[in-house]
Amino acid sequence: MTYLLRLFGDVRDDESLDVFLLMVNVFLLLAGYYIIKTAREPLILATGGAEMKSYASAVQAVALIGFVPVYGWFAARVARLRLIVGLTLAFVVGFELFVLGAILEIPYLGFAFYIFVGIFNLSIIAQFWSYANDLYRRDVGERVFGVIAIGATLGAPVGAALASALFEQKVQAHNLMHITAVILIASLGVYWLIERRGANRAAKVAIAEPEPAPKEEAPNGFRLVFQSKYLLLLAGLMVLLNVVNTTGEFILGQFVIEAAEAAMAADATVDKGAFIGSFYGEFYVITNVVTVLLQAFVVSRLAKHLGIAGVLFALPIVALGAYGLIAAGAGFAVVRGAKIAENSTDYSIMNTAKAMLWLPTSRDEKYAAKQAIDTFFVRGGDVFSAGLVFVGTTYLGLTAQGFATLNLGLVLLWLGIGVLLVREYRKLGAREPQIPEVPESAEVA
């Protein structure tokens, strides 16, 4: 197993099984999410329509304001495995209740389910990376996180493909919830195996905290963010990243619509919907392939040779090139290639960077603050982008090139925050206890 994992990164003999189990776990979580993500679309569109879907995204951000403090309170009072079991089983019960609701044909069920799935996706993946950060010391995490994240890049397309195949077999949307519930139970089994193996032993991993002692005041994720310069920079980075990417999706959509209309003008037999669907089908396939290749063969090597700066600055550099080309008036084919490059870099290199950035933080920050940033601030970036598009189109009359120019300015701000974030990361890392790594030849298997 070690030999196989070494094709993708620097994994040592005594780390290989734990790394593999974490890969399997994040694969299961992403597959489960994409199954349920596919199921939520017909539920909300059939029961509430596209308008209700847009409202649900805004309500989701409000719901997260209540979710984050509750999660922080729970995280401060239980050991990490109990925290994971508690949250996961809560989602399992939730999915089964939605199945019952679908059978009983409860009104506006799709609206509530859309909000529930959004919280599930953000929180369950954030919790996985909180756990991984809790297991590994900073230097070890920098080596192995790129390999672990391969599971995520494979789980997403597999889950989506499975859901698509089940829909073709006339499986009803609410029945897919049972599948995700079973996958979550399997994920708990993998967590248990990792804990059973004592993944926090020796000098290879961080010293895990025992059962947390009760605290007079539970750590509030939002408060932790605003009390820390490092976390505030990280939150700002996440907001900017989402604003740029979501606005970029709007720009791409404009180009696709223009291309479809041009094709219809040239050939009256062209169907606009079919043209758009065909484009995005091909676009997603290519993006997924490039993402997997980057995750498997580039991410770990980039982190090994360039450290946190290498993985953190890859995406904004790619984004500068992409939006620079669009702002300069590039054609449809170039825009498609630029967006594929941006998205695949985001889903592979940047996703790993976002996980690594939590390595030098405290336990409270890894769990409570990470939930705040990876849920509320991420969703806040989406909401901000929607407002930007509304103002740009309604009042400023911006074209695709205009939005690309706006994105260039945001990327420059993103780079500036990134520079400050890397400095703080290194400062925090320098305060960690220095535990010398044992040469691999001297390790005891």
Write the layout of secondary structure elements.
Layout: H1 2-5, H2 16-47, H3 49-75, H4 80-103, H5 109-135, H6 138-148, H7 150-168, H8 176-196, H9 221-227, H10 229-266, H11 272-297, H12 299-327, H13 332-356, H14 363-394, H15 400-430
Mean pLDDT: 86
- End-to-end C-alpha gap: 13 Å
The assigned structural class equals: mainly alpha
Rg from Cα: 22 Å
Number of helices: 15
Gross morphology is: globular
Fold and architecture overview:
This protein has 15 helices and no strands. The protein is an all-alpha fold and 445 residues long. The longest helix has 38 residues, at 229-266. The radius of gyration is 22 Å and the shape is globular.
